[in-house]
Predict the structure.
Amino acid sequence: MDKVNLAEKLGQIDEVYKPKVVAEYNDNKLVLCKAKGEFVWHKHDDTDDCFLVLKGRLVIQLRDREVELNEGEMFVVPRGVEHCPRADEEAEILLIEPIGTVNTGDAADSELTAEAERI
Amino acid sequence: MDKVNLAEKLGQIDEVYKPKVVAEYNDNKLVLCKAKGEFVWHKHDDTDDCFLVLKGRLVIQLRDREVELNEGEMFVVPRGVEHCPRADEEAEILLIEPIGTVNTGDAADSELTAEAERI
């Protein structure tokens, strides 16, 4: 029950696509992640996926279009929709996901699958 | 299923303590709110209350202490905990709450009670 300073927490993250839990809200985790390069195509059948870009630019690739998110822009990928985030330069992201959500969804055999550590 | 630019949405808000829904994530609403002055003491027995300050400073008064949130700082008020936000200067806030949550919780007879309009 302490406040969370996002910049301070981001300063503790030195790897990309290694999600870190910074707070919990009901049954959800609030996750910080640095992104660079392409993630992996995946979907979450049981949950929406909420992205807020804190710094930089993140492209959410969908099968039929791309959504370009700059700082202060948010996008919710509906459950079941395939997506693949991509950051050409390093970006910083805040995500909201139900506790227990695997970062790579149905592509859990990806080498990018990572359990979100609490920092 | 469009992206949300938080600054653009905030530009559409001209009243304080009138929450506006800008996105939905599962059974939750993502709410923008401008704050100035003191809100009302209240609690939510059924949900945590997640605050992220986007601009300015918000003080979350609790019965035993105050939590001062500056830009880029987040705090989750646990369910059942009485709190009263206060902003000495205008602040801009992103909140996450379950859909159906009343902004004033158990103080729903307050004149500050307001249904969050979708913008």
